[in-house]
Design brief:
alpha+beta, Nuclear Transport Factor 2, Chain: A, 6-stranded antiparallel sheet, two-stranded antiparallel ribbon, 8 strands, 32% helix, 18% strand, Coa1_fungi, Coa1
Length: 234
């Protein structure tokens, strides 16, 4: 006669010997006297000094300066020592060599800067003078004056034929006209040199406008030759 055991009873009978064998093996390999509390105990630590503890190099956080622990105080079972008890560690010092050569003297360039500034100001002044002289040369008043001088019989007798502007070295090839021409303010005052086939002379012309709606009135208009002769044209 054959019979079958229930499945749950078969599993229990198979598992029980296996568990017993595993527990026996673990008990034989584990040393006696070791408990979980002894494994989790605090390990012994070696006493060492922090690299910057002697000089208090750590920066303060949140505006609170670092403080040294009190001497003889125990924290977590470890005795704390005074961090500032000893002197700070010496740092490396580089001494200047005794036979070091002196520093070189820097050369002053103020003369060069002064010369450049003078040259620049001189060029700017020459440009302004040339621009104002060109403005006077192109004025309608000066053109009328030179036309009258070329066609005047008195000027031809005084200076000769072919009356024109006198040459000069400072005008860069152009005649130099002194004075100013301001038609808006009603003031014209000119002085320039002319020459003919016989003589050279200086022309003086001055005209003003008394009122805003009035006409210009000639105050001075004469030619003075180099020999002293004077010709009044107004």
């Amino acid at each position: 006669m054959s019979f079958r055991l229930p499945a749950n009873m078969l599993r229990t009978s198979l598992r029980t010997p296996a568990r017993q064998i595993l527990q026996r093996r673990l008990a034989s390999t584990e040393p006696e006297g070791i408990t979980f509390s002894s494994k989790a105990s605090r390990p012994s630590t070696l006493k060492y000094e922090a690299p910057e503890a002697g000089r208090a190099y750590m920066a303060a956080k949140s505006g609170v300066a670092p403080t040294a622990p009190a001497e003889g105080r125990y924290v977590n079972g470890v005795k704390q020592e005074e961090s500032f008890a000893g002197p700070s560690r010496p740092r490396m010092v580089y001494d200047r060599p005794k036979e070091a050569r002196p520093l070189p003297q820097l050369k002053s360039n103020w003369m060069m800067y002064t010369a450049l500034a003078t040259l620049g100001l001189g060029a700017w002044a020459a440009f302004l003078l040339h621009a104002t002289n060109a403005e006077r040369l192109s004025s309608s008043v000066l053109r009328q004056i030179t036309y009258q001088l070329r066609n005047s019989e008195e000027i031809k007798q005084l200076l000769g034929d072919r009356v024109h502007y006198a040459e000069n070295w400072y005008g860069f090839g152009e005649p130099w006209i002194s004075g100013n021409v301001n038609l808006l303010q009603g003031k014209v005052d000119l002085k320039f040199r002319i020459e003919g086939s016989k003589e050279k002379a200086t022309v003086y012309f001055t005209s003003i406008r008394p009122t805003e709606n009035a006409e210009f009135q000639i105050v001075r208009y004469k030619v003075i030759a180099d020999d002293g002769k004077v010709v009044q044209l107004a």
